[in-house]
Amino acid sequence: MRKILTALLLFLSPLSFAQEKVSLADVSLKTLDNQTVTLSQYEGKPLYIKMWASWCPICLAGLAEIDDLSAEKNLDFNVITIASPGQKNEQNSSKFINWYKGLDYKNITVLLDENGEIIKRANVLGYPFNLLLDKDLNLIKVQPGHLNSDQIKQFVKE
């Protein structure tokens, strides 16, 4: 059943119908220190993004793997995570930041999509949700569900 649902979600993904490129380079995001950033700082290498929520047990179970993957030195792609405070039942930014700072992850980059712009442009249907951007930060692939480190590497490679 899970495989059927995943296949259906992939079929209905925005990339199945997209006629033009969806760029995420200019989306305004916040760091956990409340600094405004865009994804343009990651231009030049493919970018893997894990979309997740604090209330999602599958997402939380995968954070340790993302932390380890983020620490790897010889990756040919960048790894970040994005949460969306105030969107899709996620708590507000200040509560999310306070909650996250209580966790013990050293390597994960967490950016906040407070306006839900990534959710809209990438048509994020639920959590966890995986995005792959090319070196120019155009959305080229989406995958709902949990991916372990090896699956993420394969997701980027294909």
TrEMBL record:
Write the protein's name: Redoxin
Q: Which InterPro entries match?
A: Redoxin, Thioredoxin-like_sf, Thioredoxin_domain, Thioredoxin_ResA/DsbE_sf
Q: Name one Pfam family in it.
A: Redoxin
Organism name: Haemophilus parainfluenzae HK2019
> Which keywords accompany this UniProt record?
Signal
Renumbered to this chain, the signal peptide range is 1-18
Q: Where is the Thioredoxin domain?
A: 18-158
